[in-house]
What does this fold into?
Amino acid sequence: MHTIERLPAEDFTGCVKGLAEVLADAVDDGASVGFLTPFDREAAAVWWRERAPAVADGSLIVWVCRDAGGIVATVSLALPGKPNSRHRAEVSKLLVHRDARGRGLARALLATAEAAAAEAGVSLLVLDTRTGSAAERLYLTGGWTLFGVVPGYAADPDGSLQDCSFFYKPIT
It folds into this structure.
């Protein structure tokens, strides 16, 4: 059994430890999500704490998925502040702890972010992911459109450059 909840700003700091666990696990598992090894839970916690102002001002929405053991997955939606981009948002940090994979949590979190984007008046979502990853397959089967691959765009945690696939999805 799992629950998905949007983190209000006043609860965000109290969830940093669980968010850090999920992020550190993803990096440890080789996910290309912006960090190089060594990357431990404290470094992950620092990164999440730095997101607190954006959560407080509403430009970053964070959801967590919990099971009986605590936070096992997360996704974020970044809302741009520029007047000419308020119709779009970026899905980021869709992460599921290795121990919780295979339960449909990533798909459920993605659907949650998509529904919230629609409710917020967002008409276009974008994201990127490592080419050939399980995440890429999730987006391809979830109605997202691949619009390009950039060779060597991002580094894996070990520093090796990887191709990155870019997706968009109109929200109606």
User: Anything to note?
Assistant: The chain has a mean pLDDT of 97.
